[in-house]
Amino acid sequence: MTIEQALKQRSDSKCELCASDSNLTVHAVAASPDSSAGNCVLLCETCHSQIENPEIADTNHWRCLNDSMWSQVPAVQVLAYRHLTRLTDKTDWAQDLVEMMYMEDDVKEWADKGLVDDNAEKPRDVNGVELKKGDDVTIIKDLPIKGSNNVIKQGTVVRGISLSDDPKLVSGKASGQSMYIIAEYCRKK
């Protein structure tokens, strides 16, 4: 039985957060011990897109967490807890639900581990847009290359950037050389 089949059987072919039955996809919960069905949830397109892009979240949609937070499935509890925690800045009802929620110690540890990753500082371009692996960026000003007399000219396009451990830096190839570039001197294409 595939993970998707197991999740459909577990959830009666409904989104495990809002109970919608349209456009369902498998979502692996971040920071999970493995990618088995026990660490994945079945989500509708609305829930999945809002989890992947929290900046477009519709707070009224997430009132469904009032029911799903009581699920017996640890992965569903973890997602509900994380999303309610993110909503506490925007709404009072989310804070009330977080305070009522109960999870086993190991499940709570898993949920908190994923929140730390989500709140980590992220590389942002000159306009404050988050940069992600594989993005193409344009250099916004002439940058001297450390250790040489060469300069990366304004307007140079760096394709398929990679992220580094330092959120202020991205790496990519410019003028045929691999190098680190300060993220705030880039503009996402």
Automatic annotation (TrEMBL):
Top-rank lineage group of the source organism: Bacteria
Transmembrane stretches, start-end: none
Which Gene3D superfamilies does its entry note? SH3 Domains
SUPFAM superfamilies xrefs = Prokaryotic SH3-related domain
InterPro entries recorded = PhnaA_N_proteobac, YjdM_C, YjdM_N
Pfam families for the chain: YjdM, Zn_Ribbon_YjdM
Give all residue intervals belonging to the PhnA protein N-terminal proteobacterial domain.
6-52
UniProt protein name = Alkylphosphonate utilization protein
- What is the phylogenetic placement of the source species in the record? Bacteria, Pseudomonadati, Pseudomonadota, Gammaproteobacteria, Vibrionales
